[in-house]
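Input sequence (406 aa), recorded before submission:
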Amino acid sequence: MTITAPLPRQSALPRADLRTLLARRIMRAVVDRVPVDVRMPDGRSLGRREGPAIDLVRPDALFRRIAEHPKIGIGEGYMAGEWRPAEGTDLAAVLLPFAERVTTAVPPALAKLRRVVDRPIPSAERNDLAGSRRNIEAHYDLSNELFAAFLDETMMYSSALFDESLPFAGQDFSEAQLRKVHAILDMAEVRDGSRVLEIGTGWGTLAVEAARRGATVTTVTLSKEQAALARERADAAGVGERIDIRIEDYRNVTGEYDAVVSVEMIEAVGEEYWPTYFATLDKRLAPGGIAAIQAILMGHDRYLATRRSYGWIQKHIFPGGMIPSLQAIDTTTQQHTTLRADRVHAFGSHYAETLRRWRHTFEGVDLASLGFDETFRRKWEFYLAYCEVGFESGYLDVAQIRLARR
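Predicted structure, token format:
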């Protein structure tokens, strides 16, 4: 069976449709402000002839797609092969100049049209108990073999933590991933005898490392694929008896724990459920307990500007997802919990390097043998490059945040 990444059917728009003409005009205005050479099939350039080059393969189809949904059309156009980096040009290299100018690329007069083009997040993607399971399965249950093909041997699908005293490029990836795991376990003061709750199991590495410290671990996930492999890996590490792996929603967990840890889980919770998520951390902590989360972050102004808008990542990669700001986390914990962030360690540049390594490994994966088609390959190429430049440009950040009671 071949797994095909779905592409939406384009509406039959008249050639002179005003939205298509507007999309073309916006494209020209943007490329005039960004140092990327956007080339038409006949060799003409839409803007200035400088910087990395993009070839528009089917420009009319791309403009129609952008006209229908500006925030999603660019990514879907890449999936459909309507544009591509020029030969010998890296995809991230052509996306980076746009990411660096994300707040200035669109002229102010056109930026006022944002309310017209923004679309709300579909109600079907709400992270209620049923929706959360659907959203998680849509990404994490694709295939354990797929993730194993481009992740390192730790099977950590979150930012590594490199040694900042040395160039990142020459460092061992697995060591950097384990450094991240032990940094957050240290932040949560996990030690011999600790009772640990992990929200978001992944493939079990953090639970295994906590158990190796002598902790007993309860870890919850909604992914059957992840849970099955995590159990195998815990048993293989000889610590299976110290780890209870459950297919369970975090909202249903009971018990009392000395530490609660959660690595890059909050992004999948959904803004509507952030109060519930943090209240759960608070309720599950024993007196004197500490929670530590690793979270992808964006600036508060960008969070406010995008929080009600449906984007390509939400539609094609992480349905129901929402990236918070640190201020949004502080506000939520202050209003709904007794917890306060008393330590924050940000390391966004480490995520750019992490994504770069994943992407370069992914490029060499034989996806056809795993049952995935060309559209799926393009979708994931765009996803990994898109996220990489988000961190490279500083638009996105990642941090480990310690939460303790006052």
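Checked by second reader. Confidence is low (pLDDT under 50) at residues 11-16.
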